[in-house]
Amino acid sequence: MAESIKLRGMTWDHSRGFTPMVATAQRFHELHPEIDISWSKRSLQEFADRPLGELAEQFDFLVIDHPWTGFAAVKQILAGHLKTKPTDDWLAVLEPADIWCAKLHDWSGLRTTEAYQVHQSDGCAYRTTRCPIRIDGERIYNPKGSPVLGEHTKNILNELE
């Protein structure tokens, strides 16, 4: 039997916040019995009275319905929490869970990635990123390069007449 994973979440004490999280966790546990997610709740005022960074250290999930939460999280609190582990550690958790995420690169870093490919078309080489879409976890590749500039202009103009 797989190792049991216990996760904790915190949300606000409203039926829009707590009830859907508990119901989702129960259904998720039915589909994945090795993972157990428990939810706690607190008022929005209690969230305001305590730094979100502290909650982020104590809980695996935080669900807060407040218009400025996302801004605060990205700009200040959770950004710092994300720095506690290397990017590859976060990607190892998020990608298998089918959460759309990717490593950010600077220009020199991007050019060293497998996704940065050379496409050939009529002897011309173009450097570009590949299609980011995956279907059932498989990357989509097309051996045909991009069209030559103007290759389809005549056909398009004919269609417009």
Automatic annotation (TrEMBL):
Q: Which GO terms describe its molecular function?
A: catalytic activity
Q: Fetch the InterPro entries from UniProt.
A: CoA-Trfase_fam_III (IPR003673), CoA-Trfase_III_dom3_sf (IPR044855), CoA-Trfase_III_dom_1_sf (IPR023606)
Q: Name one Pfam family in it.
A: CoA_transf_3
Query: What's this protein's name?
Result: Extracellular solute-binding protein
Question: In which organism is this protein found?
Answer: Pontiella sulfatireligans
